[in-house]
Amino acid sequence: MPTLESVVRSDPRVLGGTPVFAGTRVPVKNLLDYLAAGDPLGRFLEHFPAVTREQAVAALEIANDLLGSRARPAR
Fold first, then answer.
1. Per-position b or e across 38-64, b if 16+ CB within 10 A of its CB
2. Model pTM score
3. Domain limits of the chain?
């Protein structure tokens, strides 16, 4: 599985440090906004061709792992 650092970059010189897909200026938040609005992954990829399907899926897998690792069982 790819690491967070290999998929997402945050550099103060690129969009003021906003997390972007590595090698692009596309904020990761754009992907989340598209999905939250009900758009399919394909539409996001059409609108942001600099991002590969592999990068987008890896970002979602990493987010899932990060959120899952912080989850606590209900009491």
1. eeeeeebbeebeebeeebbebbbebbe
2. 0.85
3. 4-68
9 phi-psi bin (left φ>0, alpha ψ -120 to 50, beta other): beta
CATH number for the region 4-68 comes to 1.10.10.10
Contact 11, 63 (CB under 8 A): no
Per DSSP, what are the bridge partners of residue 8? 21
Which DSSP state fits 14?
S
Give pLDDT tens digits for 42-58: 999 999 999 999 999 99
In degrees rounded to 5, what are phi and psi of residue 31? -60, -45
